[in-house]
Design a protein that fits this description.
mainly beta; Beta-galactosidase, Chain A, domain 5; eight-stranded antiparallel beta sheet; seven-stranded antiparallel beta sheet; 20 strands
């Protein structure tokens, strides 16, 4: 086990690189404990990047990175009274607690005041015990990525309420040739049609399959895994990749892609790169988590790479 320490990358930002004995690796930044890369070895000896990171992402202090896995806490978007959008966890520096390359594991932590989770006008005493402790563990190998967040309310005075999500950007070759499956039996909140920022109005169940334009839905109480399949239109004997994305503890799934028009407004992403990713985010989004005093909450997301039938014949 190596001593935990960040190093500077080409952008001058602190990060850590962890390489598993099987050849897979992850890159995580100090700011936001931002998972920016998960590479897995291929049969041709090369590695493949499983997460999308924008080539024009802004590596600046307190500026969220576009891509990878931003950590959304304690508020999802504008669903609540707090600022900034998507919360502070993704722009604050996290402590690197442990790196165990042999096991493919890295652990990070962040402390925040209960006041930071409280709406404006709500005053919490400045007791040193009125803190929340976040512990983030990343476990990986060439077949699997498991993300776990633990939040402990150290306060003995007040409960805390929060939203959370793993805002995972999955790298794909082409949006129009990618299928999203497993959501067609789940009602959802359509953020493109909801006028109210915190709307919980549900649309009836409907197939997802493919995205051709902007897409922003929150599927509530999702009970089965989400399957992401690439190269779906190619011949059946051609190799294709399938991802199994699941959570046993986070009830909601947000599926998002900005589409061609909205992508043009992003200064930290090339116009055409909407075609290179899909976000599938497990979280506590519609119904926020309520954490009693001295209690702990845990949320996980697990991604597995499934072999196609064509690969099995190789």
């Amino acid at each position: 086990m190596t001593a935990p320490a960040y190093t500077k990358d080409a952008h001058g930002r602190h990060h850590t690189v962890v390489t598993h004995p099987d050849g897979s690796s992850v890159v995580v930044y100090e700011q936001g404990a931002h998972l920016a890369s998960w590479r897995v070895p291929q049969r041709d000896g090369k590695t493949r990047e499983m997460l999308y990171m924008s080539p024009t992402a802004e590596y600046k202090e307190r500026v969220p990175l576009r891509g990878g896995v931003p950590l959304i806490f304690p508020q999802f978007g504008s669903r609540g009274p707090l600022s900034p959008s998507h919360g502070f966890a993704r722009i604050r520096p996290w402590k690197l607690k442990e790196v165990d390359a042999a096991q493919g594991r890295a652990t990070f932590s962040l402390r925040a005041s209960v006041q930071d989770l409280s709406p404006e006008g709500v005053v919490v005493s400045d007791s040193p015990n009125n803190m929340v402790q976040l512990v983030y563990t990343i476990e990986f190998n060439k077949e699997r990525l498991r993300l776990q967040m633990r939040v402990r309310n150290n306060s003995e005075e007040v409960p805390v309420t929060f939203s959370f999500a793993f805002h995972t950007y999955f790298a794909i070759d082409e949006l129009s040739n990618t299928i999203v499956n497993g959501l067609n039996l789940t009602p959802y909140v359509d953020n493109l049609k909801s006028k109210a920022a915190e709307s919980t109005a549900l649309s009836p169940m409907a197939p997802v399959w493919k995205m051709t334009e902007e897409f922003d839905r929150i599927y509530t109480n999702q009970r089965c895994a989400v399957m992401l399949q690439e190269n779906a239109e190619k011949r059946l004997d051609a190799p294709h990749r399938m991802l199994h994305i699941s959570s046993t503890s986070l009830p909601d799934v947000c599926v998002w892609n900005p589409g061609p028009e909205k992508a043009k407004a992003f200064k930290d992403m090339p116009d055409e790169d909407y075609n290179r990713f899909i976000c599938v985010e497990h979280g506590n989004i519609i119904k926020k988590a309520v954490l009693a005093t001295s209690a702990t909450w845990t949320g996980t997301q697990e991604i597995r790479i499934l072999s196609s039938s064509a690969e099995a014949k190789l």
